[in-house]
Amino acid sequence: MAEFTHFNESGRARMVDVGAKASTERLATAQATVFLRPETLEKIQQGKIAKGDVLAVAQVAGVMGAKKTPDLIPMCHPILLTSVDISFTETAEPDQEGRCAITITATAKTTGPTGVEMEAMTAASVAALTIYDMCKAVDRGMSFGDICLLTKSGGKSGLYTRKAG
């Protein structure tokens, strides 16, 4: 098991010193899925949610979430993001539980001494929370799942790609 790096010699939490690490191009892609009733997805697609264009607002919220990651995650370094992109895939065919889905894919990029995995996962999560907030009046039973890192590249550890399943 890898050594824990966020503890000092006294066993207390610390922010890791990345000052000596090489700056490399780093990219991470994460996802989150919102499960919702078919009627709710239909209202989103038809622009019939009273609060406005759900996916447009969720997209902006995801970008904002990525930018605020170090304010939310205590040991996360503030970094200069060079790009954040959010996309949505709608699954209109209900699953076995009768739920449709919106899968959010968030990609964050930087050039620096530390990665952007947390920014990508925060972006996907904040976009999911925004969908809930905008649609809760018509579907309080929405839920989230599959929040995970899909890929990351750059840095000493190189390429990571999540295995399917």
Automatic annotation (TrEMBL):
The protein's UniProt keywords, in alphabetical order, are: Lyase, Molybdenum cofactor biosynthesis
Please name the pathway. Cofactor biosynthesis; molybdopterin biosynthesis
Superkingdom to which the source organism belongs: Bacteria
One GO MF annotation is:
cyclic pyranopterin monophosphate synthase activity
Catalytic center residues: 133
List the EC numbers from the record. Answer: 4.6.1.17
Note the InterPro entries from the entry: MoaC, MoaC_bact/euk, MoaC_sf, MoCo_biosynth_MoaA/MoaC, Mopterin_CF_biosynth-C_dom
Q: Which family does it belong to?
A: Belongs to the MoaC family.
What functional role does this protein have? Catalyzes the conversion of (8S)-3',8-cyclo-7,8-dihydroguanosine 5'-triphosphate to cyclic pyranopterin monophosphate (cPMP).
User: What protein name is recorded for this chain?
Assistant: Cyclic pyranopterin monophosphate synthase
